Amino acid sequence: MGIYIINENKLTIKEQNNLYPKDSHFIQVDIIKAIMIFLVIFDHTFPWDPLKNNMGVALWERISIPVFLVIMGFNMGFSFDRNGERSLRKLYSWNYFKRKFWRYIFPFLLLYFVSTLIGLAINGFDPDALNQYQRSWSFEHLFIGILPFYGPGNWFLPVIFWSILIMPLLYKGFSGKLRWRIITLILCYVVELSLQLVILFIFDPYNIAWYDFTALYDFLFYYRFIVTTPFFMLSAIGLGMWISRNHDIFAKQNILLWILFPLSLFYLILYQFFDFYFNFILGDYHLFVFPYSAFLFLVGIKLLPKKRDNKFIRGITMIGKSTYHILLTQILYFAIIISIWGDHYGASIIGIDSPPYELNVVFVYVLINWVISIPLGVLWWYSETKIHNYRLKKKNLDINSI
Predict the structure, then answer these.
(1) CA 254 vs CA 128, 182, 214, 286: distances in Å
(2) Helix (H) / strand (E) containing 170
(3) Global pTM?
(4) How far apart are CA 267 and CA 390, in angstroms?
(5) What are the phi and psi torsion angles at 354 (to 5°)?
(6) Which long-range contacts (CB under 8 A, 24 or more apart) does 85-90 make?
(7) If we measure between CA atoms, which residue out of 118, 119, 146, 117 comes closest to residue 134?
(8) Per-residue pLDDT tens over the stretch 196-240
(9) Number of C-alpha atoms within 13 angstroms, CB side, residue 123?
(10) Is the dihedral of CA 136, 138, 142, 144 positive or negative?
(11) DSSP string, 221-251
């Protein structure tokens, strides 16, 4: 297999359009998204201790959110390219926000209404018992996308909502010449690292006493607010935007990923197997792990099927298109599990109330959660898509292209 180099800066507009055809759709991206949503539900099912801690999850299972972040940047960069808009006024258009409302906000509002009713019914219509967001939910949390009837994965919704506001501006930086793209990517790293340092030096989390409830509550409140924005993980979205300019793994611009990938892999090996981490970095999702996921995404784009030429691929791509609705569905599903059994790892449901867990029994629980969450999410997406496409047919606006 030969390695070839593409310098898209030297291509004419016509040649660039041939390189990035406007009517193309990446089947590979749908397949990757489908795999990642399976991993998300797996993550919310398997207990950490002792199972996931001994399964090397940092190298394969915990990549789901980083990959989704990379895909967010990639999809938006490619979508803006396809539309051919460059000015901020046109990027921040009414149609842009309208499409995002129907794609993301409307399903969330529907989830909020339905989940609150279910949560109240399960908890005897006691609003205090309904509160499941670390027992500290307040009404202002709703404005960043945190539900009172909280389930795992809900924290990612504000990341999506915030990204609607910043994606056009971010794309503006990545749509220029190569030097501006480099500067924009560097700024993504600077913003992310700066937020990590703000948390470290302002709240000093390593020195908060567990019995100092005021300091602990303040730290957790502001920490959760910060980590539920895309700014805290901006380098992953930036890498996705970077890749959207040329998704070929052997393109000259992607030498950057070939350099960052082994460094990121080395860090993850140290983190997973030797408990190494940098004290100034909090959380599992940060600038040292994202290049690993971004490189795997490039490999997937290169190697995965590019056509839906059989029923299996068509089924997987349908799951990939439905990942947002599957996420919403599993949030509600696990919220019900938590409300009834007190733990979304579901030990009581499958008859293992405490460690040690039987691996085969937990796998059965994983299968149950997949079978419930994924088909219901796909059905929700499919029904909503048909309704919206019918309503918008005269305007020639297809919800699947958002």
Answers:
(1) 51, 12, 47, 20
(2) helix 156-174
(3) 0.88
(4) 49
(5) -155, 160
(6) 86/172, 86/175, 88/168, 88/169, 88/172
(7) 146
(8) 998 888 877 777 766 665 666 666 667 778 888 999 999 999 999
(9) 23
(10) negative
(11) HHHHHHHTSGGGGHHHHHHHHHHHH---TTS
